[in-house]
Amino acid sequence: MATLNRRWIYARPLEGPLSVSNFERRDAPVPQLRQGQALVRVRLVSIDPANRLYFALQAYRPQLAPGDVMAGFGIGEVVDSTDPRFRVGDLWHGDFGWQDYAVINSYDRHEYWHRCSEGHTEQDLLGVLGITGMTAWFGVEEVLRAQAGETAVVAGATGACGSIIAQLLKLKGCRVVGIGGGPEKCAWLTDELGLDAAVDYLAPDMAQALRTACPSGVQVYSDAVGGDVSRATLPLMRRGARWYHFGNLSAYADARPGVPAERHDSFMSEELRAHCHAEALKPRFLLVFDHYCHRLEAEARFAELLRDRRLIAPSTELDGFDRLPQALAGGGAGKIGKLNVRISEGQGAQA
Q1: What is the DSSP letter of 159?
Q2: For 164-192, b where at least 16 C-beta lie within 10 A, e where not — what string?
Q3: Is 0.90 topped by the overall pTM?
Q4: CB 242 within 8 Å of CB 143
Q5: What are the residue ranges spanned by the domains of the chain?
Q6: Taking a C-beta distance cutoff of 8 angstroms, is the pair 92, 42 a contact?
Q7: End-to-end alpha-carbon separation of the chain, Å?
Q8: How far apart are CA 239 and CA 282, in angstroms?
Q9: Which of 169, 292, 306, 336 satisfies CB 3.0 to 4.6 Å to 174 for a cystine?
Q10: What are the Oxidoreductase N-terminal domain coordinates in residue numbering (predicted)?
Q11: Tens digit of pLDDT for each residue in 88-144?
Q12: How many angstroms separate the most distant Cα atoms in the chain?
C-alpha cells in the first residue's frame, strides 16, 4: 500500500474570487486506523456549486478553515478495515475530501457515508444515485408535486441536478421550460432532453422569452439560481404555484468568510415582494439528508428509469488529481450535467 496521502489543502483565506491560489498540495502519511474504522482510497471526486459555500458558512457540514483538507463528496474503495461492517473491496460514498485516502468511522452519520449498491457505474453512484439525484427526486416528489399538464420552469436545467429535475417533470406529464446558458445548451435541452422549450438566460430579452414560453403562467418552479432568472419567473406564478429553492448559484461567487452568500430573496424588488405576498408564493427548502431514510427507494426507481432509457444522467469527467483546484475555480465552464474528477488508479500517493 502507498505510504503517502496526496492532499489538496484550503491554504489561503478566500478574500476575492476563488482561484487555484487558494489551494496548496501538501502530502501526508496515509492515516493509521483505530478500532471501528476503515481506510478508503478515493476514486472519483464530485465538483459541485455548493462547494463554494464551504468556505463561507456552516451548512450541512462544518465550515472550512485554512489548513483543512478541501471538502468534497466522492466514491472510494475500502482498502483496509478494523470493523467487519466495512469490507475490503466495497465501494463507499462519503465526504472524503480532496485526498487519496480517507478514514470512515462506524459512528459517522449514515446519510454522509453509505456503502454503494452494486451494479452501477461510479459516475452514476456519485451523480444520479447520489446527492445530486436525491436532491432532484425528493424535490420533485415532496415539494413540487407536479401534475400532468402544468407548466414547469427549471432554472439551471443543463446542470447536474436541474437536468434530472427537468426529466422527472417531463415524466410527470408537465410542459417543461428549461433555462440554459447559450444557444448550444438551449438546443441540448430541447433536442436531447426533449423539453418543450428552452430560454437562454444570457440573452438580453430573457424575461420576454420566458413569458412567451409560458403563455399560461408557471405552476412549478425549480430554482437553484436566484437572481435574474427568479426575477423573470416569479411574476408568472400565481397562488397555488410551487417553488422549490435548493440553491442560489447567482450569488455563490461572492461568498467568502465574513460575507456569506446572499439570502435567497435578496434579488427581489419591493414590487416583486408584494406579488409574492399577494399570491402566497414562498420558497420551500429541502435538506436532502433529511429524506435519506427513503434513499434506496429513490435509487431503485432511478435505476429502473436509467435501464429503460427513460432518463439520462449526463456527466463530464476530468482525469487527474492535480486538476481538482481548477475544476472548482473554473466552475466547470461549458460543461453539461455532473462534473467529477477522477483520481487515477495506480498513481497513488507514491507518485
Answers
A1: B
A2: bbbbbbbebebbbbbbbbeeebbebbbee
A3: yes
A4: yes
A5: 4-123+314-342, 131-289
A6: no
A7: 12
A8: 10
A9: 169
A10: 6-105
A11: 999 999 999 999 999 999 887 666 789 999 999 999 999 999 999 999 999 999 999
A12: 64
Average pLDDT value for residue range 55-61: 79
Cell of 121: 457505474
pLDDT tens per residue across span 191-207: 999 999 999 999 999 99
The confidence score (pLDDT) of residue 349 equals 35
The correct answer on CATH 3.30.450.40 for the domain covering 131-289 is: no
- Burial code (b: 16+ CB inside 10 Å, e: under 16) for 71-81 equals bbbbbbbbbbb
CB-based contacts of 214, cutoff 8 Å, min separation 6? 151, 153, 177, 236
Q: Where are the beta strands (DSSP E) in the chain?
A: 4-5, 8-10, 23-25, 28-29, 37-47, 74-81, 91-94, 101-105, 114-115, 151-154, 175-180, 197-200, 218-223, 237-245, 283-284, 315-319, 338-342
Whole-Å CA distances, 105 to 36, 39, 84, 85 = 6, 9, 12, 10
d(CA 172, CA 311): 12
Q: Which of 40-44, 129-133, 230-234, 243-247 has the lowest mean pLDDT?
A: 243-247
- Block residue for cell numbers 455548493: 50
Question: To the nearest whole number, what is the mean pLDDT of the chain?
Answer: 91
Rounded average pLDDT over 220-227: 91
pLDDT value of position 345? 63
CATH of domain 4-123+314-342: 3.90.180.10
